[in-house]
Amino acid sequence: MPVRNIPLRYSSVAGVVPSKKMKRLHEFESTLERDLIALLEFDRNVQAFEEQPVCIEFQDETGKLRSYTPDMLVHYRSDRPPGMWLKPRLIEVKYRSTLWAEWPTLRPKFRAAVRYAAMRGWEFKILTEKEIRTQYLENVRFLNRYRWVEVELGYVHRLQDLLGLLPSTTPAELIQLAVRDAYKQAEYLFVLWHMVALGMVGIELTHTLTMQTPIWSLTGQVPAFTQPFRRL
After folding, report:
1. Share of the chain above pLDDT 90, in %
2. pTM for the whole thing?
3. Got the DSSP string for the chain?
């Protein structure tokens, strides 16, 4: 559980968001932290994550004892690559403008976090809006709506069978092949996005998703344009 309670501030946006992965509410104190939680929730290589995870004590330039609490601690899955190769990551979330304006104050804290993480076999990482607010995030927001829904398994099997017959296709082409009825096509499209959200369908998520985005089966040969593992 968090070692520090997130205070209510009139100058920033604080709140909570539900995490099905962690089976509880997660606190955030900026919309940038909220967006990071969405990415961690979607990332199938993330085993667990915790906000305000540790309190790090350090001495400032005058020798005075100070404390610093990073924003997030992320643990990766040990049962599958590439998660099994990744060290736990201690994360600080900051807007780039804040980093520039407050760097003299922040630098000693970050140095202490680097040492603290290294002693435990972790990594320390600073993430800004440049790394978090990308087209990938927009796609994650879209797909997260389809992730935790119930779908007809018969539709899933039909799409999997068709994908297995094609080296690559698009959502528009696949739905046309699956069924001719327009109402049924809408149902199949819903199921397809659910499959994409669960990682059952190969797709490139760094570009805008459309009905013409290339998709492919993950059970057969994967095309050369497969997206590599994306780590923030």
Report:
1. 74
2. 0.84
3. --SSPPPP-SSS--EEEEETTTTEEEEESSHHHHHHHHHHHH-TTEEEEEES---EEEE-TTS-EEEE--SEEEEE-SSSTTGGGPPPEEEEE--HHHHHHHHHHHHHHHHHHHHHHHHTT-EEEEE-HHHHSSHHHHHHHHHHHHHT----HHHHHHHHHHHHH-SSB-HHHHHHHH-S-HHHHHHHHHHHHHHHHTT-EEE--SS---TTS-EEESSSPPPTTPPPP---
